[in-house]
Design goal:
The chain is an alpha/beta fold. The protein has two domains: 139 residues, no CATH class; 146 residues, Cobalt-precorrin-4 Transmethylase, domain 1. The protein contains twelve helices and ten strands. The strands form three sheets. Strands 8-7-9-6-10 form a five-stranded parallel sheet, with helices on both faces. Strands 1-5-4 form a three-stranded antiparallel sheet. The N and C termini lie far apart (51 Å).
């Protein structure tokens, strides 16, 4: 028998061992809930989660499941995930004992009992659930409703956000907690090797989470203008040159103002974590000064 290819990322090996120690076969919902609790209550930090149709959900974990399936480690169908090969001793020292204790603690938690446990203790992650009303009692559901109400923004504002250093799920949570209703991608070329941040994935997944997506390439900076950015002064020169082009982009700037009026809360996104290191701040500074638009940087 040909040896299976070792998963590239440590988190994927963690996922396999969790699946093994949880019995080797889990429903997809139980898998997501147990993985979530392993991060929240056992001290691991390999995956992040968003509130989704059935509670906490990691798109990265699902992507990893699909990859591990293609490598022969497991198989999945519409309802369950089944481990096909044991991953062996693949965790850091001490982690095996922790995950062993964790899986023993939650051995009897499956199905409705597991979902209820998660919803009651982490109501934010039930705010987009389709089944919260049938799972929770009245008191617990009120907590979910209260969390949902916290997410409603009342003022009109343009946010900016960069995805540098963030997982897709952490990034989305920042959008949701700011009640961003439309994400405007101001990258010239919206491609990324990092999971979740290419145009195709953003345009497919964000609407499922209540956030619309629009790519506005006219507001991006050409790749050839980004060469030789080695110092703070290089960036300042780039941004000064970019600002000089903004009067030629009035169509796109007017579009942003129209979109803000329509959606009330929108965000401009690019890569850099700090807004002052990214051209998105040039756009919002221009709008703030010319149109008295409120701006916040996430």
């Amino acid at each position: 028998m040909t040896a299976l290819k070792t998963p590239k990322f440590y988190r994927q090996r963690f996922l396999l061992l969790l699946l093994e120690m949880a019995g080797g076969c889990l429903s997809k919902m139980d898998f997501q809930k147990l993985l979530f609790l392993s991060q929240k209550e056992a001290g691991f930090s390999y995956y992040d989660f968003v509130p989704y149709h059935y509670g906490c959900y990691s798109f990265q974990a699902q992507s990893d499941i699909e990859l591990l399936g293609s490598l022969g480690w497991l198989e999945e169908n519409s309802k369950s995930i089944n481990l096909l090969a044991k991953p062996g001793d693949c965790l850091k020292s001490g982690e095996l004992d922790v995950i062993n204790q964790f899986t023993k603690q939650f051995k009897e938690y499956r199905g409705r009992k597991l979902v209820t446990y998660v919803y009651e203790r982490y109501p934010y992650y039930a705010t987009r659930s389709k089944i919260a009303t049938e799972i929770l009692d009245e008191i617990s559901y009120r907590k979910v409703s209260a969390e949902r109400n916290k997410l409603i923004g009342k003022d009109k504002v343009i946010y900016t956000i960069g995805y540098e250093g963030l997982s897709f799920e952490s990034y989305v949570n920042q959008l949701l907690k700011s009640d961003v209703r439309l994400l405007c991608d101001v990258r010239k070329n919206p491609l990324s090797r990092k999971f979740g941040f290419s145009k195709g994935v953003l345009s497919r997944l964000l609407p499922k989470l209540g956030v619309n997506y629009l790519h506005i390439p006219d507001l991006g900076i050409r790749s050839d203008m980004r060469q030789e950015l080695n110092s703070e002064e290089d960036y300042k020169k780039l941004f000064r040159a970019y600002v000089r082009t903004l009067p030629q982009k009035m169509g796109s700037l007017q579009l942003l103002k129209s979109l803000l009026n329509e959606h009330q809360r929108i965000a401009l996104t690019c890569y850099e974590k700090e807004h002052h290191s990214c051209h998105r701040h040039c756009v919002t500074d221009y709008l703030e000064n010319k149109s008295n638009i409120r701006v916040r940087h996430i």
